[in-house]
Amino acid sequence: MKRGLILSMCLLIMISCAKRRARKQAEADEEIITQYISDNNLNATATGSGLYYVIESQGTGPNPTATSDVTVAYTGMLTSGDQFDASGPGGATFNLQNVIQGWTEGIPYFKEGGEGKLLIPSALGYGTNNVGTIPANSVLIFDVRLIEVL
């Protein structure tokens, strides 16, 4: 009985610490993103999840849903400006359920033919994981052009 209580207490403490770290990271990401917006004179819209988006060209086609197949031309960068990924001019085709959460949430704000930016907090990107040249807890910036909703 005592052992179970001690294990339960340890688990609660670990969960509390993890939540506190996530909250602090979200606050740091928000500060980084808003500074990036200010430094680059962007007219960005916050979604409430930590994601910001910028519509530079609205486009005229349909909006995708979070489950759509889409073709998107993109460049992915860190806030330092270091590029970590890019599609060719013809874009890449994928289902929005198979990408980072920031894309699943953000791409549906664009209409087919639309262009702009996604400013993605680390929790909606790769979180605490290092991925390729992307360090853990990185804010991600994507220039995107929604070529087609399939």
Q: How many extended strands? A: 7
Shape: globular
Low-confidence stretches: none
Sheet of most strands: 7 strands, antiparallel
| Amino- and carboxy-terminal Cα gap | 57 Å
Gyration radius over CA: 18 Å
Range of strand content? 25-35%
Helix content: 25-40%
Decide which structural class fits the backbone.
alpha+beta
Order of helices and strands: HEEEEEHEE
Number of continuous helical runs: 2
What's the average pLDDT?
A: 92
List keywords for this structure.
seven-stranded antiparallel β-sheet, 150 residues, 2 helices, alpha+beta, globular, 28% strand
Structure description:
With 150 residues, the protein is α+β, with helices and mostly antiparallel strands. Helices cover 29% and strands 28% of the residues. It contains two helices and seven strands; from the N terminus they run H-E-E-E-E-E-H-E-E. The protein has helices at residues 2-39, 101-106; strands at residues 45-46, 52-57, 69-78, 83-86, 92-95, 115-120, 140-149. Strands 1, 2, 3, 4, 5, 6 and 7 form a seven-stranded antiparallel β-sheet that branches. The longest helix is centred in the N-terminal third of the chain and has 38 residues, at 2-39. The radius of gyration is 18 Å and the shape is globular.
